[in-house]
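S2.1 Query sequence (E1-E2 ATPase-domain-containing protein)
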Amino acid sequence: MQNTPDERTPLNPGGSGGGDAHFAVSAEELDKLMEHRRTSDLQQFGGIGGIARALRVDPKQGLSQDEDRRENGDRFVRRRRRFGKNVLPDVAQRSFWSYAMEAAQDRTLFLLSIGAIISLAIGIYEDYSPQHPKDEPRVGWVEGTAILVAVLVVILTNSINDYQKEKQFRKLNAKKEDRTVKLVRDGRECEVSVYDVNVGDIMKLEPGEIVTVDGLYLDGCNLKCDESSATGESDELKKNTEESGGDCFILSGSKVLEGVGSMLTIAVGEHSLHGRTMMSLRQDSSQQTPLEQKLDRLAEMIAKMGASAALLMLMVLSLKLFITAAIARDFPEADVLIAQMVQITIQAITILVVAVPEGLPMAVTLALAYATTQMLRDNNLVRMLAACETMGSATTICSDKTGTLTQNKMTVVAGCLAEQTYKASHADEGNPRDGQPARQLDAWKEALPTTAYEIVCESIAANTTAFEGKDETGRRVFIGQKTEVALLDMLTHFGEDYRQLRFDARQLKIYPFSSQKKTMTVVVETHLGLATGSGVSSPHGDSIHRIYVKGASEIVLDRCTRYLTAAGKEKKLDKAQRSRFSQLIMDYADQALRTICLAYRD
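Output structure tokens follow.
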């Protein structure tokens, strides 16, 4: 009996997939694994650990930044040759001549060209006919030639403009798709362009992240994804580790709704599910803006009116010509009559050409394309041409403040801790790393009781996910949520090492920030030396479990029952003190400051 293909055909891990023998798995095998997404198929590779070994990557350390580095600076050469790059192949750019041929197919230009050729032929015939006076110059060919040159200029102008416009939009499209993602390389978190993600990279996932590659879930906390764009299912899907036996496949194109985690990248670019979908749907997505559509309708209406006028003129002048010839004493010769008829036809076609404002929609398109390129220099990326037109009609703009009306750079400029307040003067506002004076911040640190100071430092270090990296200029900066960056900047100004503090406060459980809870919580194991005399005892003898909470001020304050005094001791939060804290929060909010509250419990 003939064998029929079955979707349950087992995979062939380690089989001959062709390509580089440096890796024990092929891109095709990984594609098939993600297409079926069966745990049994995953086990054929030895689980996620087996795939990691086949991809030559340590799930804890990630890839090496210097893997397969070449003299020209290229890295990951063999890996990209084997599994591809995280970029879709460029659509073949149309040639200049294809635009020229398209422009030449315009009906008006076609009619005008026919009239010009007829005029040129008659002009040459008249110039070299025996009846041509010898003392007159032979210029009968000029009119037809001039019309042909004009047609050629129009075709070249339209072709050049369309060709340049496509090049501009290619640059815009490449720019709008580029963004940074968080990876683990050499054991440290870093930010790289989404185009530089490779198969084998360990990617960090946070709420709001649009996953651009296919991967396998390694670890994390309460990670939920929306895979409706890939599967059509609108339900939130919780991801589980391989050990728990749940769904550990993360699809490209899905959105992280809640939780944090890390995943092993196994398919990028056109090999990913999202990439294959985009390749199958790839087509010219250029659309006319509403104004261009209106102008096209206007041009069509004017063209119809112009055609009617040209046809009417052709009929009237032709009728006049034949009536004049009929009543004339000597009937004109045939060549003279034909020449006059050609002149009348050319005049009618000229009226038709002049009446059509075909350059107006083209001018609008070019103006919008040029405007978007200029706006890009101001870091204002316009993804849709119609957006320029829409904003031109806007009368009221309701905008978010952070990152839109501001630079999205935050600094701690005010605070209250253990009844000690801090308010930066105008000169002190700014990033302490930038060398800005921070005398008030130093004075605030000195005024804090030791217990409260140690607690807030550990709270900031343990209950944040931002990390230190380098920007485009090579300067060391914190990378992550801007609120957390501001807190870590303050910690650094205090002279504290956030890495050591994170290491000392061993994290046991993390509850990531979500828009529903508006808080982020972490459970740590810390030393008793940080205890505040609350009477909590530890079964371990030398450490306690502590919960740190960071989030919206009004929500966290509402759940608090105690606060730290200026002496560093806990005190019951009565109604009067709660009212004072609420008023302080309102005062900060009235100054357009983002307020957050830090709390803990042993």
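The radius of gyration is 36 Å. The chain is about 45% helix and 15% strand.
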